[in-house]
Amino acid sequence: MAKLNWGLIGGGEGSQIGPAHRLGAGLDGQFAFVAGALDYRPEAGRDYGLRLGLEPGRAYGDWREMLEGERDHPDRLDLVTIATPNATHFEIARDWLKAGFHVLCEKPMTMTVEEGEEIVALSRETGRICAVNYGYTGYALVRHMRAMVARGDIGKVRVVVAEFSHGHHADAEDADNPRVRWRYDPAQAGVSAQFADCGIHAMHMASFVTGQQVTKLSADTVSAIESRVLEDDAMVNFRMDGGAVGRLWTSSVALGRQHGLTLQVFGETGGLRWSQEQPNQLYYMPLRGRLQVIERGEGNLSPEADRASRVTVGHAEGMPLAFANIYADLAEAIHAGKEGRAMDPVADLYPRAEDGLRSMAAVFAVAESGTADGKWVEARPPMFR
């Protein structure tokens, strides 16, 4: 099967996210990295692209130049990934979708709900994929959790507890550090800081695993470092359309926490617990049974987990491998579209533009509730009500 052509916007030299995307896209040999606009500084982006092996004519200075160069290219891109600062996502995704390209966008997909609804509508109108990189859903045991819930292993879900809390912004002396400061500046980050950065990952994972969507929420938000305009800690209670109750804590001032993404799902007949810092183990407690530790890569797991396991049992699983599973899903979707067939349902797990839109609606709901003493507010975007 011929490789698909892949391009990257952003993710330049020194980027945290760029290497993970390049590793993830290239792991299975399904995508060839052929084009990029990798830096906001045109010459630096071109130079880095050339050092990564791009042909001179496809190492671009910015995303607009790249779009013009790729729009009618004889060896056209099959997928472009957007890994630029948050405020640029909407414009780039919109223009590439309009030009007929499939898109994978870093989160948050947009800065407003209205922009999110426009992207969803555009993806539907053009028939082009707009995926959103909630990359943690690519972990094998997260997908096994989803399969266990779907097949009824824990009965009807009662309570979901999600966390994404770290302590890397706990030092008040970092207030003027430009790598930290922008995250709490409304002009650059929007209406939310910590929830929009980390909390939406946890909330999306709750929906991904349970198959339920958040309908309303109540939030208590605080700037523990008082000089910050936007929140650095939030506790969010939410209700889901399948009857589950949700609790979510997200923080950037939790000293001692390193990454902190954890999901617990409690049903009528069992409970599940998974943590991204120990991704090889899923804890399962059946009603009136004994606690079981499910290991990634062992036998008799779900097809979804088997497909997502990249290394043998006992070896550590990492974030680039989770990203690779998102890319593998997208490769299958693109090939299926080209071949006029249905895609493999086991691979039909990549996050959609609709997920990005729901997350943005939740961001605005948390901001509204947090400034209204925890008032319960609608969490669904208007087009899904």
Please render the helix and strand layout as text.
Elements: E1 4-10, H1 18-26, E2 31-37, H2 42-51, H3 63-71, E3 79-83, H4 89-98, E4 102-105, H5 113-126, E5 130-132, H6 140-150, E6 157-165, H7 178-181, H8 186-189, H9 194-210, E7 214-222, E8 233-240, E9 245-251, E10 261-267, E11 270-275, E12 281-286, E13 292-295, H10 303-308, H11 319-339, H12 353-370, E14 377-378
Parallel strand pairs: 1-2, 1-3, 3-4, 4-5, 6-9
Antiparallel strand pairs: 6-10, 7-8, 7-14, 8-9, 10-11, 11-12, 12-13
Helix pairs in contact: 1-11, 4-5, 5-12, 6-9, 9-12
Structural description of this entry:
This protein has 385 residues and is α/β, with parallel strands linked by helices. The chain has helices at 18-26, 42-51, 63-71, 89-98, 113-126, 140-150, 178-181, 186-189, 194-210, 303-308, 319-339, 353-370; strands at residues 4-10, 31-37, 79-83, 102-105, 130-132, 157-165, 214-222, 233-240, 245-251, 261-267, 270-275, 281-286, 292-295, 377-378. The strands form two sheets. The chain has a nine-stranded mixed sheet, with helices on one face. The model has no long low-confidence stretch (mean pLDDT 96).
Short overview:
The chain is α/β, with parallel strands linked by helices.
Order of helices and strands: EHEHHEHEHEHEHHHEEEEEEEHHHE
Which radius of gyration do the C-alpha atoms yield?
Answer: 21 Å
Mean pLDDT: 96
Strand fraction: 15-25%
Strand adjacency order, main sheet: 13-12-11-10-6-9-8-7-14
Question: What's the N-to-C terminus distance?
Answer: 42 Å
* Biggest sheet character: 9 strands, mixed
Please provide the count of β strands: 14
Q: Helical content, roughly? A: 25-40%
Shape: globular
Helix/strand class = alpha/beta
Spans where pLDDT lies below 50 across 5 or more residues = none
Q: What's the helix count?
A: 12
